[in-house]
Amino acid sequence: MAVHKDTIWDRFLSPIIRSLIDEDKLRQFYESIDWEAESDRFSNPQLIYPDYYLTQNFHGIEGGYLNANAATTYDPITQYVLPPNETWVRQGLIDAIQGTPRRILDLGCGTGSTTLMLKQAFLQAEVIGTDLSPYMLFMADYKAKEAGLDIQWLHGNAEQTNFPDASFDLVTASLLFHETPPKIAHLILHECFRLLMPGGEVLILDGNQKTLRQVDWLTQIFEEPYIKDFAAGSVDAWMGAAGFEAVQTHELWWVHQVTRGMKPLPAAQKKTFASSIVEDLGSQGIPAPAF
Fold first, then answer.
1. What Å distances lie between residue 162 and 39, 47, 155, 159, 265, CA to CA?
2. Does the pTM of the predicted model rise above 0.85?
3. What's the domain range around 279?
4. How far is it, in rounded angstroms, from Cα 288 to Cα 238?
5. Cβ-based neighbours of 41, under 8 Å, separated by 6 or more
6. Domains held by the chain: number
7. What is the DSSP letter of 21?
């Protein structure tokens, strides 16, 4: 089991954040919920929790995300620790989407903050959120109902979703990769590639790897067991290794990044697409580019 450490968060930041949170209100909400009954509604009895998730603390919480305390406190804390503004950071992922998706999968959705924003941005799309914590899924569902949004929540891991091949045109993950070992991030991206239709998009929002490498104290703030390994890697390279094309990473507010990739179109479809562009440009008297 993970051993708790005396982190910068414990010594300095936690007292400040706690002073900003209405702990009495949180306690009342926590005590008003039958957490075991509610989490059972989302639990998949066939799921075997992976060791990388089961044996670690995340954000300094004993037992990681597999408890009601994590689900209750995640949102109140996160709003203060995603500078400069949590909504702006998550909106960065939404703004990077180039198509108009009809079926969206949000991996490692947690309490559903990004998932809700995806549904609000694409109201006609079917949106599904998956997570390993049934407690977090309860909170996500609670928030969706409060917002009047129809979203499906599923208990499962991101590296083996069991959805059919080519069943989504957008797959996203927010703040997931820094909480997984790089080998799992690789597996997740390969799963994203399998799940996407040709021409579909994958978008990954997480910490800025370049910044995390240059400013070591950022990796020491929270009890994040895999963040140093994440910082040493490259989501761009991981996407390329999974088969994605047109991979690009954009910085968000210095400490965050959004990486986008596209599943390649089949050669015949690419040719048809290029021909349609040439024809359209020709009708406008514009010289066609070289493909």
1. 21, 11, 11, 9, 23
2. yes
3. 1-291
4. 33
5. 134, 138
6. 1
7. S
- Torsion-angle region of 59 (φ positive above 0: left; ψ -120 to 50: alpha; else: beta): left
Residue 280: burial class (beta carbons within 10 Å; 0-12, 13-18, 19+) = exposed
Q: Are 107 and 173 in contact (CB under 8 A)?
A: yes
Instruction: Give the pairing of strands 152-155 and 245-252.
Output: unpaired
Q: Do 175 and 226 contact (CB within 8 A), yes or no?
A: no
User: Does residue 84 have a cis peptide bond before it, meaning omega lies within 30 degrees of 0?
Assistant: yes
pLDDT tens, position by position, 250-282: 999 999 999 999 999 997 555 554 455 546 556
Q: What is the pLDDT of residues 211-255, one digit of tens each?
A: 999 988 767 766 788 999 999 999 999 999 999 999 999 999 999
3-state secondary structure of 286: coil
pLDDT tens digits, one per residue of 196-214:
999 999 999 999 999 999 9
CATH number for the domain harbouring residue 92: 3.40.50.150
Distance of alpha carbon 161 from alpha carbon 148, whole angstroms: 26
Instruction: Please say whether the beta carbons of 196 and 169 come within 8 A.
Output: yes
Q: Coil, strand, or helix at residue 27?
A: helix
Cross-strand partners of 204:
173, 259
Q: What is the pLDDT of residues 127-176, one digit of tens each?
A: 999 999 999 999 999 999 999 999 999 999 999 999 999 999 999 999 99
Crossing angle for the helix pair 235-242 and 182-195, to the nearest 10 degrees: 50
Q: Cα separation of 73 and 49, whole Å?
A: 22
Query: What pairing do the DSSP bridges indicate for beta strands 168-174 and 103-107?
Result: parallel
